[in-house]
Each structure stands twice: as structure tokens, then as C-alpha cells.
Automatic annotation (TrEMBL):
Belongs to the peptidase M14 family. This is Carboxypeptidase O. Residues 29-324 form the Peptidase M14 domain. One of its GO terms (biological process) is proteolysis. It is found in: Apical cell membrane.
Length: 350
């Protein structure tokens, strides 16, 4: 079985029923960007009571960036979980997971007690493709393209690594100032329109965002801050414990092994990442997921691994979201713990 019909606009559009469950399995491969745009429009139309599509910004090539907000109507103030996919163009499994995540939430929120519980307190903000220009280029011209498509040096070279362009120790380590490099960090922090769009939005909501998740491939890792230093963040123990629980949940599905740790310690040093930046502005739980595999296929993951990858990753992500819900909204849970006395702070760490 491949990706379910929720990922294929042609299948959804043919389905007149509002229920997502009426869609058949009909896709086993990632979608082109035009299809993802169609999917976003259709998913909102079919689930207007829960899903809204919002303008986020424009790309270097003037394409529109949209995010989806999944929000159960409520009179109470809710907090936010942010998740973005596709910051690196060639990592096609990443946007596929964002779509799978949305599909799973919408199919199961009425019957899955965990999902229905955390939707009472948390809104989910999902950006299915952050690097739209690069993603399209990876489909049309160069399958292994990584960066954005912004022109530099009078159009003699193109693209910035958007995950080196955030304002967190920008340009200090693990980057290049040569625009032909795959890790070119741009002309300055937030020099790229895609980075600015995300950063400005996140900053405008930062007192309400409790968790920042960014989905990449490959390597089978859950990465914690920081990439630019081996000095651990103030809440490192919590970050590591939650990540280990998420990895254990993931492994429980198909036995896929994930490593957990800070980027600088278990991967490589880098600066200007969105994960590090989110943590430094006060978002307490900030993680990078590196999905399957460990290098056998690398970025070109076989179609028959898409669904199992999404299924196991869903378990990890919902483990993290469930932790956030229990920590900040303990009164909604039968089992109380010591965290129930903690108040919500706008800026838990610095």
C-alpha cells in the first residue's frame, strides 16, 4: 500500500462525501507542488469546521506560502504546536509526512482519545512545504537540489540553504559564504523571503508556541538544540527525555532505530538552523526529525517505504504533542504529576 488518497487531489476531488474515510488508497509517491496546493485547498473545503488555510508569505520566485491551522472550536485560549516540512528541496519524504500528519489528525480526532484530548488545548499549525521554489526545481530539473532558488552574483549561482539562514549564531559554523555551496547561509540572517516569512510569523506567536517541529531526511535521528555549540540548553534533560520517549514509540511500530541527541554532538556542527533559532527565542521544545533511511537510498526513498515511514513518525510526533498537552494542561488528564503545579510561562527559557 502506498500513500492514502488524502494525498492525491484527483482522488479527493472525485469523492463527494465530506468524510475523508471514503477515499481509497491510490497514491504511493510524493506529490508535485501543484498537487499539494490543490490538496491544501481541498482539505480545508472538506473540513471547514476544523481546518483553515492561511497566507504566510511569498517565495523568492513569488510563489505563495500557505500553512494549515487545525483548530477545534473553543472558547478557551489554546496554545500552538508548529510543524514545517520541506525546508530542503530533495527531502521528499518530509512534505509527504506533513500531509500524512494532517490526514491522520482529521481522520481520527473523533475516535482517538489522545488526539481528541490534545485538540481541546492545542492548535496545530502545519507548513507542508517551506522551500517551494526548491521543491519544484527538484521535481523539474535536479532531483538532489537542496537549497532555495534565490539568485546571487548576478544570477551566476542560485539558492540559499534556508536551514542556515535563521538568526541563531548565523554564519558561525558549518556554513559557507560561497553561493555555489550547498550550505550557503545567505547574505545575512533572514536574508531570504522564505526564512523571513516563517521567522516573522513564529515571533508574532512565540508566547503561545510550546513546540517547534521541523521534518527532514535522512538519518533516522531526533535532534535537539544546539548545532552551533556543544553546551546544552537549560532544559536539556527534558528535551532528551521527551525525544527518547518519541523514538521509543517510533521504534515500536516497525523496529526502526533512531538516535537521539544534540546536532553538534551526534551529527555535525551547524549554525542558523530553524530549530536552534526557535529554542533561543523561547520555544521550550524544539526538534529536528531526520526520517528514513540511514543512507541505503538516502533522499530517494523507495515508494514502498513512504507509508511505514509516515506511520512510525506519526507515533513519535503524537508522543511529543501528548507530552506538551499533559505538561501544560494537566487538569484534562486523570493522572496528575508534579508538573500540574507549573504555570504556563510565555518564555520558559532563554
Amino acid at each position: 500500500q502506498g500513500m492514502v488518497a488524502i494525498l492525491s487531489p484527483s482522488c479527493i476531488i472525485k469523492t463527494r462525501e465530506r468524510s475523508l474515510l471514503s477515499c481509497r488508497l491510490c497514491l504511493s509517491y510524493p506529490l508535485r507542488m501543484t498537487a499539494i496546493y490543490q490538496w491544501m485547498t481541498q482539505i480545508q473545503k472538506n473540513n471547514s469546521e476544523l481546518v483553515t488555510q492561511h497566507f504566510l508569505g511569498k517565495t523568492s520566485e513569488n510563489r505563495t506560502m500557505y500553512y494549515l491551522q487545525i483548530s477545534q472550536p473553543s472558547n478557551k485560549t489554546k496554545k500552538i504546536i508548529w510543524m514545517d516540512c520541506g525546508i530542503h528541496a530533495r527531502e521528499w519524504i518530509s512534505p509527504a509526512f506533513c500531509q500524512w500528519f494532517v490526514k491522520e489528525i482529521l481522520q481520527n480526532y473523533k475516535t482517538d482519545p489522545k488526539i481528541s484530548r490534545f485538540l481541546q488545548n492545542l492548535d496545530l499549525y502545519v507548513l507542508p512545504v517551506l522551500n517551494i521554489d526548491g521543491y519544484i526545481y527538484s521535481w523539474e530539473e535536479d532531483r538532489l537540489w537542496r537549497k532555495s532558488r534565490s539568485p546571487y552574483e548576478n544570477g551566476t549561482c542560485y539558492g540559499t540553504d534556508l536551514n542556515r539562514n535563521f538568526n541563531s549564531s548565523w554564519g558561525s559554523v558549518g556554513v559557507s559564504f560561497n553561493c555555489s555551496s550547498d550550505v550557503f547561509c545567505g547574505s545575512g540572517p533572514e536574508s531570504e523571503p522564505e526564512t523571513r516569512a516563517v521567522a516573522q510569523f513564529i515571533k508574532s506567536k512565540k508566547s503561545d508556541i510550546l513546540c517547534y517541529l521541523t521534518i527532514h531526511s535522512y538519518g533516522q535521528l531526533i535532534l535537539t538544540p544546539y548545532g552551533s555549540t556543544t553546551k546544552p540548553p537549560s532544559n536539556n534533560e527534558e528535551l532528551m527525555q521527551v525525544a527518547k520517549e518519541a523514538a521509543a514509540a517510533l521504534t515500536g511500530k516497525y523496529g526502526t532505530s533512531y538516535r537521539v541527541g544534540s546536532t553538534a554532538l551526534i551529527l555535525y556542527s551547524n549554525s542558523g538552523s530553524s530549530r536552534d533559532w526557535a529554542h533561543t527565542i523561547g520555544i521550550p521544545l524544539s526538534y529536528t526529525f531526520e526520517l528514513r533511511d540511514t543512507g541505503t537510498h538516502g533522499f530517494i526513498l523507495p515508494a514502498n517505504q513512504i507509508q511505514p515511514t509516515c506511520e512510525e513518525t506519526m507515533l513519535a510526533v503524537t508522543t511529543i504533542i501528548d507530552y506538551v498537552d499533559k505538561k501544560y494542561f494537566p487538569n484534562g488528564h486523570v493522572q496528575r504529576n508534579l508538573m500540574s503545579s507549573m504555570s504556563i510561562k510565555a518564555h520558559p527559557i532563554k
